[in-house]
Amino acid sequence: MDDWRTIMVLKLENKEKIVKEINEIALCAISAGIADYRGITADEMTVIRNKARENGVYLRVIRNTLASRAVENTKFSCIQNYIKGSVFWIFSKDDPSMVARLMKDTIRDYEKVKILALALDGKLIPLTQIDAVAALPNRDGALASLMLMMLTPIIQLMNNMKFTLVQLVYVLRSKQ
Length: 176
Hints:
Elements: H1 4-8, H2 12-28, E1 31-36, H3 42-54, E2 58-61, H4 64-70, E3 87-92, H5 98-109, E4 114-120, E5 123-125, H6 130-134, H7 139-175
């Protein structure tokens, strides 16, 4: 029977595989964050992972040295100085605010989880701004807002033209 130290040691090829996987994710992600998860149970961590998966977010617990190497030459290298203790990483490829929303929900549900760092497109975001980032609309919401902004002047023009035409008809009828 293997003792626990043998099981916990990762072979070099497994470490390289993990670093490569995280590096590829970091290269195409638009937002990332790390949080200290000490003090939560395995069941609670499973709930957090499931929520991340449901929202299309990649969540992974990675050894700190491997994580540091994985993000070394990416836009998320700004987070490297915050990797301390037992942390999990969250990456989002599609929705820039999803990492902040998931982290905000997680600290609300599990008081022991502490957000350590959040980066958006390679820029470190102050933790005081996490609410503002979490409030950003997702892609579909932003597109809907843009479409509404583009349609509003057209709708107003059509309503004004309709009103003007109705007035013209009344004037013409009164002249007869």
